[in-house]
Design brief:
Elements: E1 2-4, H1 5-13, H2 21-25, E2 29-33, E3 39-46, E4 49-55, H3 59-62
Parallel strand pairs: 2-4
Antiparallel strand pairs: 1-3, 3-4
């Protein structure tokens, strides 16, 4: 399920600064993608946990979560 970046920013704003990306998205795993720019993809089950495929551009902001 794609999550537009504008919706993602709303989720970030609702959490305290420093909240890990996985916690903001409510997933167990975060995977970085060099080709994504305007969406985050939420995947319900990857090896038994929900996951997110996230634009690599967010790595500088959130670190290697």
């Amino acid at each position: 399920m794609p999550l537009p970046m504008a919706e993602f920013e709303k989720l970030v704003a609702a959490k305290p600064p420093g909240t890990p990306l996985a916690e903001i998205l409510g997933v167990g795993n975060v995977y970085w993608s060099g080709s994504l720019t305007d969406h985050i993809y939420l995947v319900p089950d990857v090896i038994g946990k929900p996951a997110a495929i996230v634009p690599a551009g967010l790595k500088a902001r959130f670190g290697a979560d």
